[in-house]
Amino acid sequence: MREMPSAQTSPATADPSVPLAQVCQNLAAGAGLEALLAAVQTELPDLSIQHVMTRAGWHRLGGVVDLEGRRIAHNLAEWAEAESGGDIDELLFKLSDVQHFATRLNGRTHYLVTPTGPLARDFIQIEIEELQEVLDRTLSDPDWFPETLAEFIDPFEFPRLQPDPVGAPRFLFRRLTRISDLIGSPDAGPKLMRFLSDWDRSSAAESDAFCHHWVLAIREYQDRDGEGRMSAKPVSALAGRIPALPDGDVARGAKLANQIHGFDREAGYPFAWYFHMLTSREVSHKLAESVHADLMGAYDYLPARDLKVLRDWYREPYGL
Predict the structure, then answer these.
(1) How many domains does the chain have?
(2) What is the pTM of this model?
(3) Which of 95, 122, 199, 230 could form a disulfide with 187 if both were Cys (CB 3.0 to 4.6 A apart)?
(4) Is 32 helix (H, G, I), strand (E, B) or coil?
């Protein structure tokens, strides 16, 4: 799989990925976000590191512990394959007279950023995971007979235990991406490039750096030819806290102007409603159509540069 684009900072930090991975490893279990930020900033003193958002709600397979909480294995899949020798019945027989538990790693991803230039694409994005191992389920049940090792390792349905912690949270470096390199690669889709260009052309660019309000959710995958590829989608730092916007039949005139300007004030930058309209399924494109109709009529409540962006969208709509 192709390597992720990496940042180029000062000669001393030409490839920050390795030292950042070590920074995460050196932090004590249970160290909080403030300690992480301080450690990363110390490692990259020439950059201004800022935490933008944290995405939670995901997990990975963990390991195996016994009834007393003693560690049996760190990796459930590797342990099951070794203990079974490829025979699921053999593994179930071994577990018939012991009580072992599978764990899972509850995860959160912290997004750290630093601007590197004037354009929306000019920033470095650092993703650091925070993982906490918790109890997940028992590994044996008299009424459960998995047919394959894969079903044993990750059953679709199985009674879950109270997720009591097995250990304190630890940080794990995920990736560092120079977004300008990503946008300049074949992996950057035309919609994402247009989204960033719209930011640069709008009044939003006059207020603050793009990366202080948005991150890119990057996904690695293989295409039909087996080649490693990436995709990226903008995610607002307000995710889960987006102010209400009309999503269907919207107001017109002064009331509509007050609604979108109120949204912008809550979001913290001008023209915010437009970018959230492009990325949120909860906001209908009818909102932009209504604003456009107002501004083509008797109303004038957007700056000229924002009106130009909106008119371009009206002629050729898109969304992400």
Answers:
(1) 2
(2) 0.86
(3) 230
(4) coil
